[in-house]
Amino acid sequence: xxxxxxxxxxxxxxxxxxxxxxxxxxxxxxxxxxxxxxxxxxxxxxxxxxxxxxxxxxxxxxxxxxxxxxxxxxxxxxxxxxxxxxxxxxxxxxxxxxxxxxxxxxxxxxxxxxxxxxxxxxxxxxxxxxxxxxxxxxxxxxxxxxxxxxxxxxxxxxxxxxxxxxxxxxxxxxxxxxxxxxxxxxxxxxxxxxxxxxxxxxxxxxxxxxxxxxxxxxxxxxxxxxxxxxxxxxxxxxxxxxxxxxxxxxxxxxxxxxxxxxx
Length: 263
Ligand SMILES: Nc1ncnc2c1ncn2[C@@H]1O[C@H](COP(=O)(O)OP(=O)(O)OP(=O)(O)O)[C@@H](O)[C@H]1O
Fold this sequence. Notes:
The protein has a single domain, classed as P-loop containing nucleotide triphosphate hydrolases (Rossmann fold, 3-Layer(aba) Sandwich). Helix 3 runs parallel beside helix 5. The protein starts with 6 loop residues before the first strand and ends in a 6-residue tail after the last strand. The radius of gyration is 19 Å and the shape is globular. By secondary structure, it is an alpha/beta fold. A six-stranded mixed sheet has the order 6-7-8-3-9-10, with helices on both faces. The protein binds adenosine-5'-triphosphate. The site of adenosine-5'-triphosphate has 13 residues, from strand 2 and helix 1. GO terms for molecular function: ATP binding; ATP hydrolysis activity. It comes from Gordonia humi. Keywords: ATP-binding, Nucleotide-binding, Translocase, Transport. InterPro entries: AAA+_ATPase, ABC_transporter-like_ATP-bd, P-loop_NTPase.
């Protein structure tokens, strides 16, 4: 794996079908860190991931890896450098878990069903996501959470420097969600993850970017960003931020919602 880059989003706007989905967004995902993109439904998190993944192009502005614009890479080289897991990614083919994870190596030219070192590689990623026991299970027999973990193992197998994850803890039970985010955080990728769960964002992210209606509202460490005022303003949540009794990291304690007048 090459060294993880810093991702720069520079004055990016994205418009489609006459609608502005992102409006003059500037933010950074620091190298080797886990950056969480948070914000209410429809605030532009998936759009941001799709632009960094190069699935769509910004209408204005640019996105860079270590200062180099993302469109400067050939498609195959970019696929080696950046692995992405979509929110509703699925596969039509009824592959086994081992084969799906092996698909991650395709940008490197080896594909699945190949030699012993590839099997070892796949085993390592199955272990990291605690799905070794599912190795020979076929896709259609997997639960939502098992599919999600398989997709992340596939992204690990891509041996890229950047991981883009759209709601990676979707479908996961609490322990599986914690294990997945811990594995991602410890993976030494530059990670950008769209997250809904504020407790997970507070616990695992090094850096947070907050979106509302396609605009950046705040950016910084969880300590800097997660405040009672911000959660009331952006989400309409009545919440307290208290230090975690063991780690000291901020913890979001939701008490209810606030009235319209406070938003
Ligand atoms: N092709 C499109 N044309 C018009 N509007 C779109 C299009 N695609 C997405 N949108 C709108 O853009 C906004 C941002 O969508 P996006 O999926 O990026 O939000 P999100 O923050 O990921 O939402 P969620 O948390 O619900 O997944 C939403 O209001 C969505 O309805």
